[in-house]
Amino acid sequence: MYQGEILGEALFDRMLAFYEDPNHNHKIATMLQLESETVTRLRPALMELGLDLSEAEKSRTAGIKWADSLRGLSWNEFMVSLRDALQPYIDHYSEITAQAPPRFAAIAESMVLHEKSLKRFAELEIAGDSEHSLDDIITQLHHPLPKP
Fold this sequence. Notes:
Number of helices: 6
Strand content: under 5%
Number of domains: 1
CATH class: Mainly Alpha
């Protein structure tokens, strides 16, 4: 999960330069904020589990490569791609959650919610509900970004 969030952080960081529309940039920046806050939120659990807190370079590289593969897509095409890419993460994180020790069940469940909120964002954008598309993401943020 941790490396997946690092991948997402690199993806959205790279994509900040892809769209000129200030609203699109705000939405990408908000997704970046979610990924960054989630990376930070996962670290205590990883440390308690004795896991490595290092960011794998391959995770950042994969995020950058994914972003580069999306360069030039229209906003709607990007949303379709994002929506479709998130289901495997939801499925994988759900499997992890089902096996999580009780002490870590809540944080594992929050990761499923995290991925579902990103997918819901993309679905709402595709449906044309851009006014409410970030709602599920923003509710998870401790430091939401100001609107443009």
